[in-house]
Write a structure and sequence with these properties.
Shape: globular
Number of strands: 18
Number of helices: 15
CATH class of the largest domain: Alpha Beta
Strand content: 15-25%
CATH architecture of the largest domain: 3-Layer(bba) Sandwich
Helix content: 25-40%
CATH superfamily of the largest domain: FAD/NAD(P)-binding domain
Largest sheet: 9 strands, mixed
Length: 477
């Protein structure tokens, strides 16, 4: 199919070195599991020239955690020597001085990129892990109990045979998912041309937003945000702040479930006069109210102002909230009308995973089953196909995939989405994935695989052993 290519065999491939993939590597290094993973053979594949953070730092919004949460990912004594150079970094001290505040994601991204590069350099140098940067995963084939991972680097094709694949390549927002979801609620769906991804809009500066949407404001076009999460209220604030100077007067927010607010404790929620279910809305592990589904920090402030005053933040832009859960038919009808007439609809309804082509050994396409907020997967991120068959050896838990609510991860019972977050990636979420990968490799009775590169597809003689390709910034045997 690919003609002449190189082939490699290893125990585990980590596809994607963004927040989720790096979270697993941080956790494996901190707990000592990296040595065992490396014994089976470990290859990290990432499309970026500078792996480590994905596009986290591109967002023009605040985080939904305080700075200390991100520092907690770095302060383990087992990592002290690895992270010692961070003490010389201005990025570290900017987050340090915001320990009890929610920092900008651009600042978080800068810190995590530096920390990730230190981790990658360390595990490559000390554990014989391979890092293939600027390398794109183009196709994955599930062949019996193994996976074939096809990758491309600067036009050169390679196949990696592996017993376990951890695949977190980021997320995307498909406007058709929004349109289909609205139709399923009986709402008039907007034209596809009107739908704009919040993922792209939240990366734009105020000046860029004005340049893009000032003509729409001048024509009197209506703006609608769909969603009720952190990104939806961040989008409300960004669009109101950017477009108020050019005449934006109002924006509608359509949400299918009540707006939930996050509080550190029951006492804090009660002191703020917030009504909640003491069982369904409280995480039994942390005691936090709406731990997974509630608005936090800056989004919480914006949400409370909208709920109490009807205006977005400190602007004079009015916000109209329209709940479409069926409890108020008048709101549902109004939502349908504003969606049908909107000039711009901003999609803040979650992500779908970015995936390469997935196939079985016979060439048939594999489609992963989706549920609210992500993929239908078990506690280790092992997904089901559209027939309900578990794809053992494949693990996805990053953006667009997520993990379902699990008692060990902690969440409020009323939360029905998927669990994401940098801290979870670095701790509980990746822990169960690491355990599952190691157990699978042990069950497969894989010896320490010698990584051999062969030229396949030649038409004469035996395959010829070739020197290792110098892919990535650090490839060590």
């Amino acid at each position: 199919m690919y003609g002449k290519f190189l082939e490699t065999t290893t125990g585990c491939v980590i596809g994607g070195a963004g927040p989720a993939g790096m979270g697993l590597l941080f956790n494996a290094l901190r707990t000592g599991a990296i040595a065992e993973l490396a014994q089976y053979g470990l290859i990290i594949v990432d499309a970026s020239a500078s792996p480590g953070v994905g596009r986290l730092g591109d967002y023009q919004i605040t985080a939904n955690s305080v700075g200390d949460v991100f520092l907690d990912c770095l302060r383990d004594p087992a990592m002290a020597d690895v992270f010692a150079p961070l003490q010389q970094s201005p990025a570290y001290w900017r987050i340090f001085h915001q320990a009890q505040q929610a920092p900008l994601l651009s600042e978080v991204g800068e810190l995590l990129l530096l920390a990730s590069q230190l981790v990658l350099d360390h595990i490559v140098a000390h554990y014989n892990v391979q890092l293939w940067s600027e390398t794109l995963i183009t196709e994955v084939i599930r062949d019996n109990d193994q996976y074939q991972v096809w990758v491309e680097h600067r036009g050169q094709v390679q196949r990696i045979r592996t017993g376990s694949l951890v695949l977190n390549l980021g997320g995307r927002q498909d406007p058709r998912c929004l349109v289909d979801g609205l139709k399923a609620q009986g709402l008039q769906a907007p034209a596809l041309a009107a739908v704009r991804s919040a993922d792209s809009l939240l990366r734009m500066s105020p000046a860029a937003l004005r340049e893009c949407f000032a003509p729409v404001v001048a024509r009197g076009g209506d703006f609608v945000v769909v969603g009720g999460s952190h990104s939806a209220f961040s989008m409300l604030e960004n669009i109101a702040s950017a477009l108020e100077p050019v005449g934006l007067q109002s924006v509608s927010l359509v949400h299918r479930s009540p707006i939930r607010l996050f509080y550190e404790s029951l006492e804090q929620a009660r002191a703020n006069g917030y009504e909640f279910d003491p069982v369904a809305d409280v995480c039994p592990i942390s005691g936090r109210v709406n731990r997974s589904g509630g608005l936090r920090y800056r989004a919480l402030d914006v949400g409370r102002q909208v709920l109490e005053r009807g205006y977005v933040g400190s602007t004079s832009v009015r916000a109209r909230l329209l709940l479409t859960d069926g409890s108020d038919p008048a709101q549902t009808e109004a939502a349908s009308q504003v969606l049908g007439n909107a000039a711009v609809v901003m999609q803040c309804t979650g992500y779908q995973p970015l995936l390469p082509v997935l196939r079985r050994g016979d060439g048939t396409v594999i489609t992963l089953r989706q549920v609210t907020g992500g993929l239908d997967s078990d506690a280790s991120g092992c997904p089901c196909d559209d027939q309900g068959r578990r794809l053992h050896g494949l693990h996805l838990f990053g953006l667009g995939s997520g993990l379902g609510v699990d008692p060990l991860l902690g969440s409020e019972p009323s939360f029905s989405g998927r669990i994401y977050g940098v801290w979870q990636f670095h701790h509980d979420a990746s822990r169960v994935v690491i355990d599952a990968v190691l157990q699978r490799l042990a069950d497969l009775a894989s010896p320490q695989p010698a990584i051999v590169h062969l030229e396949v597809g030649v038409t004469h003689g035996w395959p010829q052993e070739l020197p290792d390709p110098a892919w990535g910034k650090a490839v060590i045997r």
